[in-house]
Design brief:
four-stranded antiparallel sheet, five-stranded antiparallel sheet, 38% helix, 29% strand, alpha+beta
């Protein structure tokens, strides 16, 4: 995992393209640039770990390019739970719930992620309150979609 600058990121992808993803949808370009500038951008090689089970949960990651695999441990075995694609996030639930990471996120392919700390999330609320509300709604909507998919997987598991 290698930190990159906003200038490097902008050479690979226009910041405005982030609005095409579910987490950043409907945010103003000013709020998007604020998060990209103040957050931490990382380039990942396939197989790089974003975070591991038990790591501090005071942050979440948005996939800007590529995808991640998310794994949870069950009865001593690691199980693949979901793929996190462009514009989606991982780590928001532990940040909001104030607990450690409940699994491990690994780059599925060469990827770029944006780390948003709880402090930056709070700062967004102070500086861009409307965008904060939109971001929170987007995060809640994505969380609901994940819960729905997990519920579907549970009921179809034995079929």
């Amino acid at each position: 995992m290698q930190q990159i600058s906003l200038a490097e990121f902008s050479q690979m992808m226009a910041p405005e393209e982030m609005a095409l993803g579910s987490v950043f949808g409907a945010l103003t370009i000013d709020a998007t640039l604020f998060l990209l500038e103040k957050g931490s951008l990382y380039r990942l090689a396939e197989g790089d770990k974003v975070f591991e089970y038990g790591d501090a949960g005071g942050r979440f990651f948005v996939v800007c390019k590529g995808s991640l695999d998310f794994f949870k441990q069950h009865q001593g075995e690691w199980r693949h739970i979901r793929v996190v694609n462009f514009g989606e996030e991982t780590g928001f639930v532990p940040m909001i719930a104030l607990h450690e990471q409940s699994g491990t996120a690994v780059a599925r392919e060469d990827s770029i992620v944006l780390e948003i700390s709880s402090a930056l999330y709070a700062e967004l609320q102070q500086k861009y309150s409307v965008d904060f509300g939109l971001l929170t709604l987007n995060l809640a909507r994505e969380m609901a979609r994940v819960i729905d998919k997990m519920g579907e997987a549970m009921v179809t598991k034995d079929q």
